Amino acid sequence: MNGFRGYERPDGTVGARNYVAIIPSVACANGVVSAIAREVPETIPLYHGHGCGRGAARDLELHFRALAGLGKNPNVGAALVVGLGCEVIKADFLAGVIAETGKPVEVFEIQSEGGSRSAARKGGKIARKMLALIEHVERKEADVERLILGLKCGGSDSLSGVTANPMVGEVTDRVVAAGGTAILTENTEMIGTSHILERRACCPDVAARVKEMVGTADRLTRDIMGPLASLVIAPGNMEGGMSSIQEKSLGCIAKAGTSKIMEVVDYAEAPSEKGLILMDGPGYDIESMTGLAAAGTQVMLFTTGRGNPIGYPIVPVIKIASNTRLYRAMEDDMDVDAQASLDCRTLEEAGEELERLVLSVLEGEQTKAELNRQDGIICPYTTSPSF
Amino acid sequence: MADVIIINEADNVAVVMRDVAAGRAIELPGGESLTALADLPAGHKVAITAIGEGGAIVKYGESIGEAAEDIAAGDWVHTHNIKPAK
Prior knowledge:
The complex is a heterodimer. By secondary structure, chain A is of the alpha/beta class. Helices cover 41% and strands 17% of the residues of chain A. Chain A has two domains: 19-135, Rossmann fold, CATH 3.40.50.2300; 144-371. Chain A has helices at 30-39, 57-72, 91-99, 116-135, 160-177, 194-199, 204-225, 235-240, 245-253, 285-294, 324-329, 338-343, 347-362, 368-371; strands at residues 4-8, 14-15, 19-24, 44-45, 76-83, 105-109, 140-142, 148-153, 181-184, 261-265, 275-279, 299-304, 317-321, 336-337. In chain A, the strands form three sheets. In chain A, strands 10-11-9-8-12-13-14 form a seven-stranded parallel sheet, sandwiched between helices. In chain A, strands 4-3-5-6 form a four-stranded parallel sheet, with helices on both faces. In chain A, a hairpin with a 5-residue loop joins strand 1 and strand 2 (14-15). The radius of gyration of chain A is 20 Å and the shape is globular. Chain A starts with a strand and ends in a 16-residue tail after the last helix. Chain B is mostly beta strands. Chain B has a single domain, classed as Archaeosine Trna-guanine Transglycosylase, Chain: A, domain 4. The chains are: A alpha/beta, B mainly beta. Chain A binds chain B through residues 157-159, 161-163, 166, 193, 196, 238, 240-241, 243-244, 246-247, 250-251, 254, 339, 342-343, and chain B through 1-2, 5, 7, 15, 17, 41-45, 57, 59-60, 62-65, 77-79, 82, 84-85.
């Protein structure tokens, strides 16, 4: 794989997009963030439902890391953090962590700005100033080593693991072979394949982390679902031709190709190694995409068999339909028809073609999800109820 | 449209890309062909070699279970003739 032309950030990361992100440190600031985004529609508001009311230190850690990671994502050129003032995740602290990247970051709290309207006015001014500030950043040639690819599947069908996921795996292998990085997450989709993933770990420490992560996912699924845990391989999967949990999970992890696993990172944690990385985190699409975006992915490959149209506000998401019927039914949302690609090509050729699309998207080509403004709301992973 | 996809060269099953009725010929990517010994629904697996009882069912180059009985090339491979790997 060749390099790509992207927006170089002061910390050396390279963005595929050049956004001004408006980040509420707590859900109570969503309204002001929304007012700013209405006034300056070129900005990207990152609405979410968290920031307070959490007793578990683990959840605060997850939410903080997710919000900070989104601000640090190289597709964000500048970030404005909007706090309320009394929340647990302090806006100043959040802004400070994002500012470690060297990119322009500003912050204020609604309670110190005379309320919503004047806070929104202030935010609008800052947002306009930030847009002007990053406007002049031009794309420059960047090495593939700067690329972090996010791997995701959602609304899978029996062909997802046969057409779309192996095609994505081919791209993953090519990115990794060229010195880039790809992140596979969704620990529930790894249940039953721990022994295979452990074998692929680069060293015993990483193998032990893989075992621990998949073992915990297996246990949690049983704890939460009880006798229904076996339905993680659902009756629908069986009808579609899946005969065992191993088969289903192998279809999911096919997105990760055949490279060695270099590191296991926690949810929303940026990798410190290059190559193939596993991220601990749930299978739920919206939460796992937040984890991938917060880890610094500039683009995501998202396979689907049933037709999930969701995108992500700051990361272009390439939708790969596992079958032609879905591609035709939802052409508005699907970028690639994997079944048609594989019908007249080898897996290697289909992978090469998908890799070319990844490169053009990295360099600015809009994905269907971007064209449709499929940006929704940010959901970080949460492990316990709020109070 | 291709009849089947063989995901990994080590696999002893292929995935049927469209419904195939028992008795119909299935063309393999290498140019050889097999006769379907059962009705094969799209997305399901067909044995591309004979697999003896207890033998590994290999897809993605990995075992996804064991043959619960002797399986002939062309046979439908699913929960009725697969048991979990030991």
